[in-house]
Amino acid sequence: MAWKSIVDQIFNLEKPFLFWFEGLDGLVATLIYLVVHFRGLIPKNDIQRILATWGTPGSPSEAQAQVPASFSREIVPIACHSHNDEERHVPLYDALNVGCTSVEADVWLQGDDLLVGHSKDSLKPSRTLQSLYLDPLLSILAHQNPALNLTASRANDSAPLSGIYTFSPSTSLTLLVDLKTSSADTLPVLTQQLSALRSRGLLTRFDGSRVLEGPVTIVGTGNTDFRALVSNTTYRDIFFDAPLDQLWGEDAPGNATLYTANNSYYASVSFAASIGGTWLGGLAPRQLYKIRGQIKGAHERGLKVRYWDTPGWPKGLRNHIWDVLWREGADVLNVDDLVGARDFL
To answer: Which has fewest Cβ within 10 Å: 48, 91, 140, 295?
Structure first.
C-alpha cells in the first residue's frame, strides 16, 4: 500500500468531511483523518473538560466538587493577569486554561455577601466571590494535594503544598480582589470568607517576621484601606496593591517606604495615566526612563510590577508595549486577550 500517497491525501484535505475517494488508499486516508480530527476535539486536561461542559445542567457544581488530580496537566503557567476575569465565559477557569498566574475579581458587598461584577448593574445573587473563586480554588487545591488532609486545620503547618499547576507546583495563584464598596464594610467580610483557605494553610501569609508563600496569594486593590491591612503586625494574609507611581522619582511621597514585601505584593498603576500615550506607535525616551525608574523602585521593595490600562488595539501596538514592559522587567502582563497573551509569552 502506498503510505506516502495516503499521507499526502490526508494533508491535502481542505474541508472536513469532503473527501475524494481514490480506491482503498483514499478510504484509509479518510479513516485516519477522521481519527485525527475527532481526537483533536477531545480535551487534553481537566480544565478543558470543565470549559467544554460548562453550561450543561449540573456541570459547574459537579466540576467544582470533583476535580481530578490531573487537573492542570500539560498547562504551563505564564505571567499573565486576567483583567476583569468575572466577565469571562467561565470565570477563573478560562484564565487557568491558558496558564495565567493571576486573576482579578471586582467585588461588591451586598447585604452580608460579596458579589462579583464589573459594574453594579451586572451583579447577580448567584455570582459570588465564594461560588466563582474561593470554593473552586479550595476544591482544586484539595485534589492537587491528595496525600494531605485538607479537611482539617493546617494553619500552623509550614509544610509546602502544591499549587494549581502540576507543571510548576510551587507557583502561587494571585487573586486580586478589587473592592468596589467601602473597605471598612467589605474587608471584614472578605477576611471571614477566606477562613476555609486560611485554616488549611493555603494562603500566602506574613507571620510577623517573614512571608510564607502558599498556593493562593490574596491582594487587595480598589477601595482597600492600606492602614486596615497593616493594623495587625503579627499576621496578615491579604496584601496590598501599592501605588507604582509613588515608589520612585522626585515626586514620590516620603511615605513610599511604607510599602514592603511584608505588607504589599503588587505595585500597580494605569499605563495611560502614568506613562501616557504612544507617538507613531512607539515610546519616547522620557517614557522609557519613567518605566525603568518605576520598575526599579518597586523591585527595590520586593514588589511585583503590574501596569493596567495598556493599549489593547491595534494588536501590533499592544504587543509592542507588552514587549517593552516585559523586557524592562514588569512581572506580569495585565491582559484582556488570554490567547494573545499565551501566544506572546
So the answer is: 48
Residues in Cβ contact with 263 at an 8 Å cutoff, skipping those fewer than 6 apart: 206, 226, 229, 230, 236, 239, 240
Q: Which long-range contacts (CB under 8 A, 24 or more apart) does 277-280 make?
A: 278/311, 278/317, 278/321
DSSP 123-142: --TT-BHIIIIIHHHHHHHH
Q: Are 107 and 189 in contact (CB under 8 A)?
A: no
CA 173, CA 214: separation in Å to the nearest integer? 9
Distance CA(326)–CA(333), nearest Å, equals: 8
pTM attached to this predicted model? 0.81
Residue 240 pairs in a beta bridge with 220, 264
Cβ neighbours around 247 below 10 Å, total: 26
Q: Which three cell numbers stand for residue 93?
A: 477557569
Q: What is the pLDDT of residues 211-261, one digit of tens each?
A: 999 999 999 999 999 999 999 999 999 999 999 999 998 767 667 679 999
Angle in degrees, CA 18, 22, 25, rounded to 5: 105
CA 170 from chain centre, in angstroms, equals 15
**Residue among 273, 241, 242 at smallest CA distance from 257:** 242
What the block records as the C-alpha cell of 163 is 499549587
3-state secondary structure of 263: coil
Rounded Cα distance, 246 and 253, in Å? 6
Q: Cα–Cα distance between 241 and 104 in angstroms, integer?
A: 12
pLDDT of 146-195, one tens digit each? 866 666 566 556 668 999 999 999 999 999 999 999 999 999 999 999 99
Residue 243 corresponds to which amino acid? Answer: P
